[in-house]
Design goal:
By secondary structure, this protein is mainly α. A two-stranded antiparallel ribbon has the order 1-2. It has one domain. The protein contains 5 helices and 2 strands, in the order αβαααβα. It is globular and about 50 Å long.
């Protein structure tokens, strides 16, 4: 279980690295450990603040078929940017929205790859 948690944390840091590489307005400063710190902080903010925002936005999530969740993820990214000096997002609205979308897509792809690599082998 601990190994899965560490792999998920490393995949999250890798997702931040890929997102920062793809999106010109987002930077993570400080090298490898900065990516680990930003992904840890993002996970904590997402667990606490993101949960509250998702509950409050539930009626809008139902009406928009989940599109409001992009805004919730963008808000969580904005809060993470505000909390740490290692993450720099130049403009809240468009850059943060695109960062939330790219981060979500990259995270899903990396989680799929990680689940294939971590699945038990049956021969």
């Amino acid at each position: 279980m601990l190994v899965r948690l560490l792999v998920a944390w490393l995949l999250s840091a890798l997702a931040f690295a890929i997102t920062a590489w793809l999106l010109p307005g987002m930077e993570v400063n400080g090298g490898f450990f900065a990516y680990l710190w930003v992904s840890l902080l993002f996970g904590l903010v997402n667990a606490v603040v993101g949960t509250v925002l998702r509950i409050l936005a539930l009626p809008l999530v139902v009406i928009t078929l989940g599109l409001v969740l992009i805004l919730v993820n963008a808000c969580v990214l904005g809060i993470t940017d505000w909390l740490t000096s290692h993450l720099d997002i130049d403009e809240f609205w468009w850059t943060t929205i695109w960062a939330a979308i790219i981060l979500s897509v990259v995270s899903v792809i990396l989680d799929l790859i990680g689940s294939v690599l971590m699945s038990p082998k049956t021969d």
